[in-house]
Amino acid sequence: MLPDVEVLVVAHLRDTSAVTAITDRIGTEHPDDFTDPWVKVQTLDEQQASRPALHLVAPLVQVDVYAGAPVAGVPSKREVSELARTVREALVALPTGAHTGAVVTAATAALRPMPDTTFDPARQRYIITCSLTLHAA
Fold first, then answer.
1. How many helices (H) does the chain have, and how many strands (E)?
2. Domain count for the chain
3. What pTM was estimated for this model as a whole?
4. How do residues 61-120 score in pLDDT, each as one tens digit?
5. Which is it for strands 102-113 and 125-136: parallel, antiparallel or unpaired?
6. 30 lies in which domain range?
7. Which of 50, 59, 36 is nearest to 123 (CA)?
8. What is the CATH number of the domain that holds 31?
9. Between the CA of residue 136 and those of 62, 81, 102, 130, what are the distances in Å?
10. What is the sign, positive or negative, of the torsion defined by CA atoms of 8, 13, 14, 17?
């Protein structure tokens, strides 16, 4: 069976010391407390990459990287930029790592700043769109 892509990406980010040195709040949901930075992983699409067998998949994953609460009303863009660039590096390194139940053969990631205006004031956020190619181990 093919692996759960979100579980794979979350586990990889949690195992990446450069990421966890900045935040250990990495998951598939928003946290209850928005004080500290966090990373949210979600699958946007998972295409079958080979036919006719469902062996190789090419998921598209969105990783939202959020800043912690503004300090003295000043949004922390520098903090979230560092975290986002660190997460992107970890994502493109997925093919070089060992993963439970999966082999990742390719990874690319695009990064863009996009403040989340559902917060008041708007929360600094970077969105990383990551294309993967993987199969079951």
1. 3, 5
2. 1
3. 0.92
4. 999 999 988 776 666 788 899 999 999 999 999 999 999 999 999 999 999 999 999 988
5. antiparallel
6. 5-136
7. 36
8. 3.30.2000
9. 21, 33, 4, 19
10. positive
